[in-house]
Amino acid sequence: MPAAVPVRPGAGGRLGRVADDTGDGQQRVRAKDALGAYGERVAAAHLVAVGMTVLERNWRCPIGEIDIVARDGDVLVVCEVKTRSSTALGHPLEAVTARKAARLRRLAAAWITERQVHPPDVRIDLVGVLRPARGAADVEHVRGVA
Prior knowledge:
By secondary structure, this protein is α+β, with helices and mostly antiparallel strands. The chain has one domain: 3-Layer(aba) Sandwich (Trna Endonuclease, Chain: A, domain 1), CATH 3.40.1350.10. The protein has 2 helices and 5 strands, in the order αβββαββ. It has helices at 26-49, 98-115, and strands spanning 53-61, 64-72, 75-84, 121-130, 138-142. The protein has a 5-stranded mixed β-sheet, sandwiched between helices. Helix 2 links the parallel strand 3 and strand 4. The model is unreliable at 5-21 (pLDDT under 50).
């Protein structure tokens, strides 16, 4: 398998909020992207803390993107990260549908083909990150969902 990519935990500071929206939606998109990037940093740090090795982040191909590719012993792990700032729209993990799980399986196969690796096993995990207005993020890691 490829060499590990070092992962630094997030600095822990609050993400800046955009005070001025021009009406074109760009400010909202940037805030959403910042929240997603924060969640991916928290998720990567969590995976390292539980003993996994992060191999790659934000790998893209024509059919989509893998948030985190990791190794758990000899198992290749493809992680989908979902981040929310509240549960108003549901828990972060509720956003992963059967269709998304099927795409993650296809993405895992594409990553394996591109990297020319032959892991003995492949697993799809979900990491949900809930970032409340105050306090630390809540991380939920579900292994082997697809």
